[in-house]
Predict the structure.
Amino acid sequence: TRRMAIPTDQLAGAHALFSSARIDNAGMSGAMRWAQDRCGMLIDPHTAIGLAAALAEPGDAPMVTLATAHPAKFRDAVERATGRRPTLPARLGNLFTRAEAFDVLPADLAAIEAYVAQRTHT
């Protein structure tokens, strides 16, 4: 049935350990502005989602959020939210003009496992 049943006690335990939040575009943009205004940092949209969720968490417990990307990867969104257009570090200056490198794999688990195994150093 492709259905997973979680026992009530396990679900209650997970709820005790984890929380979640839903952040819309306005909340994301607000978090990017907050990071710039309060901390002097430009952050990417994904990091802003985590920051907005952390800021919305009730209580005064310490909260840690992790940056997930360089803001220049999403320069248009960052500029719309903050008015500042982030620049790439010099070592990544040609990031947007580099040729992409990728492999196309069949939608087959065994093929994907073999591909990963061939490229994994043990």
Q: What stands out?
A: Helices lie at 8-17, 25-39, 45-56, 75-82, 109-118. The radius of gyration is 20 Å. The chain has five helices and no strands. The mean pLDDT is 91.
